[in-house]
Amino acid sequence: MTHTPDSDADLALDASEEQRLSEALQSAWSPRSIDPARHERLLNAALEDPFAPASPEELLESERFRQALEGQGEHADLALARALASAHAPAPVPEAAWLRASRSPDATAKRSNVRFVQFGALGAALSAAAAVLLLLSHQSAPLASAPAPDLATLAQSRSTVALFQEAPVASASSRIDRIASARSRELRDNQYALWGVR
Amino acid sequence: MDESAELQAERALVERAQRGDRDALGAILRQHGPRLYRTVLLPRLGSSAAAEDALSRTYVKVLERFEQFTWQSVGVYPWLRVVALHVALDFLRARKRELLFEPADVERELDGAERDTREAEALERHDLAFAKRRVSELLGRINPRYADAIRLRVLEERPREEAALTLGVSVATFDVVLHRAMAALRKALAEGGTEP
């Protein structure tokens, strides 16, 4: 007997789905026994009485934990409670912290990537020097055919804040790259404007 | 009818447990829990993780309701099994993906289980055979070669080389056949329908 599958779509079964189905078949055909140690843990957990009378130590610790949760004092379980809460429903970044982060390069990058900052400063200095040279050369030898540039059309020196309004996930090197790219583009535009070829 | 010594001991444990003795209830569950897992929960839920979760919930329900249990001549296991079947039914109803069993299968079992007077060993045999019948029925809905591939590699866990040899194909071909077999089985499950 030959059998032709209905279509390729019918055969789409990823590895995890196949594994799940295999386990279901094996579980029905020849179910394995539960691991005794695992069963003992399950049983002990079920038999524990959450409403059993509290010992004096439990009363003391529960009061300390309550206070720690309310921001008064510390407790060994507080970090775990915060970790659980963060994993269950992570709190949004406070607005003030978000604004600080979006207005300046992140502090971590400042501390750990001093070289990137140095390269950035060097790049900015080179850009400024190139602009001065361009202006001087234009003043000393203006192109005869070039009309007088309209200064309003030239790119103006401006803050780079606008480049970083999105989430602060970019690395320091990518920010420097973006500054250099923006400055280069503006320099080229200015050159073209001054030469009258734009 | 005289009760066996084993049942008498169990009855004593039940009486202690119903008076609030958790050690006695622990002894009862320690004896019957692994059987509930292997023959009731794991075959119906299809994964050890789900079966363990269901066993925990079964224990919680047993703890909550044990006072309601009335001693029967066949012991406490049939009652525990009914509790476990209810938990399995809840799990199956909550599932989104296809499994070997459907809620309707377990509902039918529960109808009979509450009046079942068989002892634990007889119920264990019944449950194991019931699950195997379900697998056989499902394999009967797909191409026989596919069923053979699943039987050899998944159910009997034979090495793929041996399975390929049995089917008279290369190992590479066998892998493809098995993959297609699983897809065909999933499709059969999705189409539903349970033979009575």
Write the layout of secondary structure elements.
The complex is a heterodimer of chains A (198) and B (196).
Chain A: H1 15-29, H2 36-47, H3 56-69, H4 78-88, H5 95-103, H6 107-112, H7 114-140, H8 172-195
Helix pairs in contact in A: 7-8
Chain B: H1 5-18, H2 22-45, H3 48-65, H4 77-94, H5 103-113, H6 120-139, H7 144-155, H8 160-167, H9 171-191
Helix pairs in contact in B: 1-2, 2-3, 2-4, 2-6, 3-4, 4-5, 7-8, 7-9, 8-9
Would you count the extended β strands of chain A for me? 0
Largest sheet of chain A: none
Radius of gyration of chain B: 20 Å
Mean pLDDT of chain B: 87
Walk me through the structure.
The complex is a heterodimer of chains A (198) and B (196). In chain A, helix 7 packs parallel to helix 8. With 198 residues, chain A is mainly α. Chain A has eight helices and no strands. Chain A has helices at 15-29, 36-47, 56-69, 78-88, 95-103, 107-112, 114-140, 172-195. Chain A starts with 14 loop residues before the first helix and ends with a helix. Chain A is elongated. The longest helix of chain A is centred in the middle third of the chain and has 27 residues, at 114-140. Chain B is elongated, with a radius of gyration of 20 Å. Chain B is built from nine helices and no strands. Chain B starts with a helix and ends in a 5-residue tail after the last helix. In chain B, helix 2 (22-45) runs antiparallel to helix 3 (48-65), helix 2 (22-45) packs parallel to helix 6 (120-139) and helix 3 (48-65) crosses helix 4. The A-B interface holds A 1, 3, 5, 10-13, 17-18, 20-34, 36, 38-40, 42-47, 49 and B 22, 25-26, 29-30, 33-34, 37-39, 42-48, 51-52, 55-56, 59-60, 63, 97, 99-101, 128, 131-132, 134-135, 143-146, 150, 154-155, 157, 179-180, 182-187.
Quick structural summary:
With 198 residues, chain A is mainly α. In chain A, 60% of the residues lie in helices and 0% in strands.
